[in-house]
Amino acid sequence: MMGEAGRHLADLGACEGAAGNISVCAHWPIEPRGRFPVAEVMELPQQVPELAGATLLVTGSGRRLREIGDDPAAHLACIVVHEGGKSGTLYTGLQRRFERVTSEFNSHLAVHYDQMALLGAWTNFHAVIHAQPVHLTYLSHIPRYQDEQYLNTHLLRWQPETIVQLPDGIGYLPFRVPSTPELMAANVEGLRKHRIVLWGKHGAMARSDVSVKRAADRIEYAETAARYEYLNLAAGEAGQGLSAEEIRAICRTFHVQQDIF
Ligand SMILES: [Zn+2]
User: Fold this and answer.
1) pTM of whole model > 0.90?
2) Cα(202) to centroid of ligand 1, in Å?
3) pLDDT tens digits, residue range 224-234?
4) How far apart are CA 68 and CA 19, in angstroms?
């Protein structure tokens, strides 16, 4: 599934080179040694005591998302969290093609922890994806799209299903340096309110408690919306988009709770 999501994101043009990263966290016992026989202890970027025993699958630093499916054990690491949550066992394959896990692992772990343990919502599976879709990222360079209300009222107006798929809208996080604790904290906060956040001048991060492919779909819905918006800008803003009243009618019909329109 991580391989299929990686391919999907590549088809979207959202993970050039080795850009982007994917992780899943499953809170049930998994025996990783069949595929990942090499074991070593690693310190976790933050203590996650409630995730003791949980298993994370995460992309290796510098790996290409489009290649995960070809040989998952070469591109992924498997981390089983120890009792106490300060460290874990890092399991990797014999054909491992990376030194460290993704440099955004601090954000992935923090978001899994927040969603699975701290919010009190019962979930034993959680997926997080960071990717760099071109149109969405481009819009984040234009100052007026850095306002969350402006961003959402403009992007969610092009297709009827966008508000249904992203009823909490797209969160906006001002630029922070990649991999930093500041970006990590902003992701945790933003992904409490939204299922996808736009990282200013960088890319996006999406989550799902259903499947990794669902998280990839969220990136695609947001990127498609951004592509319409970009087309409209390039065409001299000839398009009207769905009106607020039309979007509210869609929400009434499909029982969507939203407070954007
Ligand atoms: Zn990135």
Assistant:
1) yes
2) 6
3) 999 999 999 99
4) 13
